[in-house]
Amino acid sequence: MRIQQKNQTMTIVSEKACDVSTERKERMSGSELLLYGGIIAMITAAIGGIACAVVFTITGQNLKMQLDQEYGPARK
């Protein structure tokens, strides 16, 4: 054990509490897997949505140019 002093208040901290990096070598629980799996699914869906938006924008521009060539410009 070691003793830390902060603002004249003494706190006793165990060595096990100080070494947090090596403490967690156990498997994740089911709720943690669901949490991190959900985060990964949301990130994947966002990336897929951005990719679809880019593809649809490009193909939409190509389609508009082709329709303008075949049928003339759109009337408003």
Number of helices: 2
Instruction: Assess the beta-strand content as a share of residues.
Output: 5-15%
Straight-line N-to-C gap = 80 Å
Instruction: Going across the biggest sheet, name each strand in turn.
Output: 1-2
**Which overall shape is indicated by the principal axes computed on the Cα atoms?**
rod-shaped
Q: Using DSSP, what is the number of strands?
A: 2
Please state the average pLDDT score: 82
H-E string = EEHH
Q: Largest sheet, described in full?
A: 2 strands, antiparallel
Explain this structure to me?
This protein is α+β, with helices and mostly antiparallel strands and 76 residues long. The protein has two helices and two strands. It has helices spanning 15-18, 30-71; strands spanning 2-6, 9-13. It has a two-stranded antiparallel sheet with strand order 1-2. Strand 1 (2-6) and strand 2 (9-13) form a beta hairpin. The longest helix is centred in the middle third of the chain and has 42 residues, at 30-71. The protein starts with a strand and ends in a 5-residue tail after the last helix. The model has no long low-confidence stretch (mean pLDDT 82).
